[in-house]
Description:
The structure holds two protein chains of two kinds.
Chain A: E1 9-20, E2 23-35, E3 40-44, H1 51-58, E4 66-71, E5 74-75, H2 80-84, E6 87-90, H3 102-112, H4 117-130, H5 146-158, E7 164-168, H6 176-193, E8 196-201, H7 204-210, E9 213-218, E10 221-226, H8 228-234, H9 240-248
Parallel strand pairs in A: 3-8, 3-9, 6-7, 7-8
Antiparallel strand pairs in A: 1-2, 1-4, 4-5, 9-10
Helix pairs in contact in A: 3-4, 5-6, 8-9
Chain B: H1 2-21, H2 31-44, H3 55-73, H4 76-85, H5 87-92, H6 100-127, H7 133-158, H8 164-181, H9 193-199, H10 203-215, H11 223-249
Amino acid sequence: MPGMTPPVLDVHGLSRTFQLRSGPVHAVRGIDLTAGRGEILGVLGPNGAGKTTTVRMLATLLPPSGGRAVVAGHDLLDDPAGVRARIGYVAQSGGLDPSCPVGEELVTQGRMHRLSRAGSRARAAELAADLHLEDLLERPTAALSGGQRRRLEIALGLVNRPEVLFLDEPTTGLDPGSRADLWDLVRRVRRDHGTTVLLTTHYLDEADALADRLVIVDAGTVVAEGTPADLKARHGAATLQDAFLAITGRATDAPAAV
Amino acid sequence: MNQLFADTGVIFGRSMRQTLRSKTSLTFGMLQPLLFLALMGPLLSKVDLRTGGTSWQAFVPGLLVQLSLLGGMFVGMGILVERQVGVIDRMRATPLHPAAPLLGRTLRDVVQLVVQSALLVVLGVAFGLRAPLAGVLLGFVFVGLLSAALALLSYGLAMNVRTTPEFAAIANTVVLPMMLLAGLLLPMTLAPGWLDAASRIIPFRYTVDAVRHLYLGEYTDGTVLAGLGVTAGLATVALYGGLALFRRSARTP
């Protein structure tokens, strides 16, 4: 459990500056975070806090401007290929080809992770059974409901049995029933496979219900860290909402000050 | 290297299945050359295009290059959509070789455009084209190289623009003057000296001249070799350019 083994995710001073025509934008200003094996780490913050930029850096999609990170035992900067083989990444936009049937997306994802044809088909069947997608295999992804889409996207992220699964705003836009199902799914992935999950969210109830530990980010830096219970106790707050307000001075949906 | 081939094969298969699923993809890009073939080709049948041979032997090669140009230049539209919904990021977060998403798609486009070209030639024969088989087959090599070059550049561009209209504006602006200047519809043998000279800065001019000579069975007079050199050179430049543009896009949000 957390703390007993070397962290699966070890991030120090990670930063990213975008050079725009209007001048530099410091999206992430030096973030530190760690997560142990099988831990669900919630990265909570208002829109524009730098959550997506952080996840994209950790998933090797965006080179950091500064800092270092070890992801699943591999250095992010020196061995991005080693990192890619051991992570699952589910973007907020999902990344599905609308015309592609569900089964084919799953098999192709396996092939991209260099599984053999047969191995890839077997893994696809296994995940389809596990994530209740068997009846949808022939259906184009455009015809899926919001909850089904998310299940498929997470299945794609799990094809390579990742040590770390990154979920960027996984329940944004889902109805309450689908959100609850997705929370169950994330817990089950952790329980059955010991997968470390880093998920970003701006929903306080989600952070409270799902995360073992929270990192609260605001304007590109970590402003607080701890278990949901810790954070509440530390600020004498009855709810995470109150604690969040005490820490950041505003509600999660308010845009970050620039 | 083997890994690059295997990964390119995975993306080629995925892209090919996308194409076969889409009911419009085979006709996409083909409509315009088909209309030219059916509605303009017959107008030229009694005109001396001063290329030697029949007007069809000059006109059909022009349409093939036009098909490559239009078909190749606009393939970027597809990757723009995939980029916007996050498909490219999903691929980039796997161990897949970074060049495979570009090369696999380009290979698909080459196959698609060569098949469409063959269809166009068959229709051309129905209208009255007669050309040596070896020349026609060699012509497809030029079509393949040119399609690859344009597809690579189109993807490179699409990965570095912000919006679809921006891409369409750039592609349209490039295609029309190129098409006219290369002498695709009417050969530059009809052109006044200044226009003929201007057209020599357009690489497709050499491609279309070479294919016209192939359709006349004139394989050894230097035009074919010059066309092959320019077209292969363009494809090589496009390969490096396309890969560089693709890599560059990974560094920007």
